[in-house]
Amino acid sequence: MSQSNSLKGRKVILHDMCLRDGMHAKREQISVEQMVKVATALDAAGVPYIQVTHGAGLGGNSLQHGFAPHSNEEYISAVAAQMKQAKVSVLLIPGLGTMKELQSAYDCGARSVHVATHCTEADTSPQHIAFARKLGMDTTGFLMMAHLNDAEGIARQGKLMESYGAQTVYVTDSAGYMLPEDVKARIGALREVLNPETEIGFHGHHNLGMGIANSIAAIEAGASRIDGSAAGLGAGAGNTPLEVFAAVCERMGIDTGVDLFKLMDVAEDIIVPMMEHVVRVDRESLTLGYAGVYSTFLLHSKRASERFGVPARDILVELGRRKMIGGQEDMILDTAMTMAKERGLLKSA
Amino acid sequence: MKKIRCALIGSGNIGTDLIYKIQRSEVLEPVWMVGIDPESEGLARARAMGLKTTAEGVDGLLPHVLEDNIQIAFDATSAYVHAENSRKLNARGVLMIDLTPAAIGPLCVPPVNLREHAEKLEMNVNMISCAGQATIPIVHAVSRIQSVGYAEIVASLASKSIGPGTRANLDEFTYTTSNALEKVGGARKGKALAIINPAEPPMIMRNTISCLTDDEPDQDKITASILEMIGEVQKYVPGYRLVNGPLFDGNKVAVFMEVAGLGDYLPTYAGNLDIMTAAATRTAEMFAEEILAGKIQLPTPEVA
Q: Is the preceding omega at residue B217 within 30 degrees of 0, hence cis?
């Protein structure tokens, strides 16, 4: 209990993901009007950072990741123009998004960026991180699928991102696989090697129901930024539900600066009615967390399952076994077809 | 039989793998390896394989071009130094095969447009990128049957096969490949995605190629065209293999490929590197055949 009490008075910066990670749960189909409505309400609730892009970030519009009804520029411009205090952030995954698109997002009003790489490939991000800093953006290095690298490895990768100019380094539990002790080990190792002024963040997925507990563990180990999503709208079983996390913080005396009741209202009155399916821990999203699979694979696997007759859970477990990572959505269809052939459900070419 | 004598610039993995492939060629002979570090393993290995070496960069090679009758050079350095290397060697009548993303010269994918370049005697041809070599033949196989409005490729690469140059300049890879999907592949718009996967054991290079045709795809014709094209690529990259597809979905055609390398110097999973060195060798061979047959003649050096 003493540990919990020690968090009293700690300041934590919340970063809402429902208009980026939540795009995955909506098959990228959120309208500009919905984005503005949600963002305006989050802004009024005092949420300091709101991420707004295609689910896969800048450059995300593609056959691989789906096409949103509007360009990233349209979403960002529309939202940024309405913000009273919140900063609009974007996601940039090198290999998918480019510096041209980052410049364009900045021109539309984005002032913060998560530059994301797989947890072992930080050295694909130097030009993007440096460019974000040159633009004067709040710049985060975002280490995805962090369960696939150990604490020392994460510390080395985070140090690289810091050396490129990242002001914050995130441990990103893309698969919702990590347990509190896994989070603490990685965040603790980062805290030891990063400069004192470099912040640390945690981005959770709720596939094992650990979003809140993992985020608290992250703060205990030295994190000061937490990603979550109103009503948990996000890939897989969703992100750490932001209003629940804010309530827990309030109980623990952690200072988030948000208006809890207003945030609860955003979740209940705006986000929940937008959901196409109830974002929760169900059989398939639980499989993601259990097998360590990228949360975005959820709906793709369900579609592949319908098409080729192989259960989504079987496909997800196989993708985990083959160590597929974020961005390899094409391998879902490929894996489903290969499994269907093996099971005599599809004839070989 | 007479062979065309070659110089390799850049003594890293690509340059070393090229030695093996060129040594097997009936029309090419590797003579010089150019590096910048006298202590480098690559130069030592090249010497052991019977090549002359210099650690003075291209300037160390220039005085020997004429006496050693070097007619083709492969540049596997970086986009930043390629332009200067090319200028110096072209001035001495040496034809340049560019394996960097510099893309000064026309873009070349052997089964798609090599013959055009050979007939025109281009003095600098660019090999685009590994993903370009692996995917553009398929896009072309679709676009030669019916018009393709959009082509998108996803290249999954083993982390161990991606060097520091590519990592630090991932945007160049994206731009170069996307552009070539249009210019060489024949799609009106192209988009390239790259994923670097660290799985152990390393995954073999995978490529997914998706094309949106303007009209409903003629499934039989497109399938036949793709299979024929795969056969063409297999002539120089035997490990170029169809895993799944073509999968038709409305106007979308999706093809799931794997590229295993020959395992000359680079491990077999690094099909991405192998397809570059194999395509570069194939390209040089085509020029060499034309030169040996007297169909094209390299220009007389400007400087003696």
A: no
Token output for A119: 């947890």
The per-residue pLDDT of chain B, averaged, comes to 94
- Distance from the Cα of B218 to chain A's closest Cα (Å) equals 17
B196-218 burial, b if ≥16 CB within 10 A, otherwise e?
bbbbeebbbbbbbbbbbbeeebe
The tokens of B215 are what?
């009209």
Burial bucket for residue B13 (CB in 10 Å: 0-12, 13-18, 19+): middle
- Using alpha carbons, select from B28, B3, B32, B37 the residue that is nearest to residue B15: B32
Fold of B130-269: Dihydrodipicolinate Reductase; domain 2 (3.30.360)
Q: B180-226, pLDDT tens digit by residue?
A: 999 999 999 999 999 999 999 999 999 999 999 999 999 999 999 99
| Fold of domain B4-127+278-292 | Rossmann fold (3.40.50)
Reported as a single tens digit per residue, the pLDDT across A272-284 is 999 999 999 999 9
Q: Are B9 and B85 in contact (CB under 8 A)?
A: yes
Residue to mutate among B178, B181, B241, B244, with most A CBs inside 10 A, is B244
**CB < 8 Å to B252, chain A:** 63
Q: Which domains does chain A have, with CATH numbers?
A: 2-274 (3.20.20.70), 296-342 (1.10.8.60)
Q: Rounded distance, CA B218 to CA B226, Å?
A: 12
Say yes or no for a CB contact (<8 Å) between A325 and B167: no
Cα separation, A105 vs A96, whole angstroms: 15
The structure's pTM equals 0.94
Is a pLDDT exceeding 90 seen at residue B103?
A: no
